[in-house]
Amino acid sequence: MGDFTHFNEQGRARMVDISDKQETERAATAASSIQLTKDIYDRITANTMKKGDVLAVAQVAGIMAAKNTSDLIPMCHPLKLKGTDISFSWNIADDIYELQIEAFVKTKGSTGVEMEALTAASVTALTVYDMCKALDKGMVIGQTYLVTKTGGKSGDYHRDVPRRADSGSK
User: Fold this and answer.
1) Could you state, in order of their start, the residue ranges of all structural domains in the chain?
2) Annotated catalytic residue within 20, 53, 85, 130
3) Which of 56, 139, 158, 150 is CA-nearest to residue 108?
4) pLDDT tens string 37-88
5) Does residue 127 surpass a pLDDT of 70?
6) Has 130 been annotated as catalytic?
7) At residue 165, does pLDDT exceed 60?
8) Quick one: 25-158 is in which CATH superfamily?
9) What is residue 94's DSSP assignment?
């Protein structure tokens, strides 16, 4: 099992020892999206959903998810996050209403925050779905992916993803 870092000598799962890694500033941004109906878009932007302010609740859920990633992903180290932010924008084209989600997470530590950013973006989209599912269960959660990562031994990463023009923002 020599090349696999998450397995011990017996071939069993283990959490990687990061005690010798240098603490550096590390940040990551991840994105996700959810397609929904015009009716749901109208209600979210007018803040008239019966369950409350969808974007505010989803934003808090995303932040909480980032803070609790190690409880969800077995080999993730618990991290002391220094900052987390969730932002939203709308992409509206050809009668398709898409809420774009961006999750930013930062820390100073011995391991990166990519999983925290990805978890935050995912849970934010799931929360929007949960708050709107009474109106339409056919919403589609889009691709979730790492946009950027800075810091650490492996260096920086930037995904070249063309951003669509926003047709409005909230």
Assistant:
1) 25-158
2) 130
3) 150
4) 999 999 999 999 999 999 999 999 999 999 999 999 988 989 999 999 999 9
5) yes
6) yes
7) no
8) Molybdopterin cofactor biosynthesis C (MoaC) domain (3.30.70.640)
9) T
